[in-house]
Design a protein that fits this description.
about 5% strand
Length: about 170
């Protein structure tokens, strides 16, 4: 069986957390661009109802990125670090470790990107006077791919949990 060092997997998840943190920083810095209408003022998320601009899905996207993308990756990193520290597990199967990491990150970024699109484009359309009913046709294409992104992230999480449980069970 091909195996990868638990600390290496921990480091990779830590790097993913850092990358996601920089993505969050870049997303947060978008308020510096007035044309996007994300800063205080007319059409702002700071002064308007969240249903108008950038839409509730913009907030969902941002919090998915912060909670699942950044914090989640650091928790995975800690889990693999503790796997070695607490249980003495040196290695885990490469396929499960790599599959977990890749599916988790692709799923998170796919979900974040699509929900951000829905929030920004849908919110912009409604804020510019478009009908909330018509906006569904504008953003409707993103529903199934967003669900696929969530599914990939969940599958990556499941693989990671199986990886951790199998590693601990083998150790006993």
């Amino acid at each position: 069986m091909n195996a990868v060092d638990s600390l290496k997997t921990s480091k990779l998840f830590f790097i993913v957390g850092l990358v996601n943190g920089f993505v969050a920083l870049a997303a947060t810095s978008l308020i510096l661009f007035p044309d996007l209408r994300l800063a205080a003022g007319p059409g702002s998320i700071l002064t308007h109802n969240v249903d108008v601009w950038p839409g509730g899905w913009g907030w969902v996207s941002y919090y998915i990125l912060l909670i699942v993308g950044v914090c989640g990756a650091f928790i995975w990193s800690l889990s693999y670090f503790l796997l070695k520290s607490l249980f003495g597990v040196e290695k885990t199967p490469t396929a499960l470790s790599a599959g977990s990491l890749v599916l988790y990150e692709v799923g998170v970024l796919m979900t974040v990107a699509l929900t951000a699109y829905v929030g920004l484009e849908g919110g912009r359309f409604v804020a510019d006077g478009g009908s909330p009913i018509v906006v569904t046709a504008l953003i409707g294409w993103a529903v199934i791919p967003t669900g696929a992104g969530v599914g990939l992230a969940l599958l990556g999480t499941l693989l990671g949990l199986v990886n951790l449980v199998l590693a601990v069970a083998r150790r006993r």
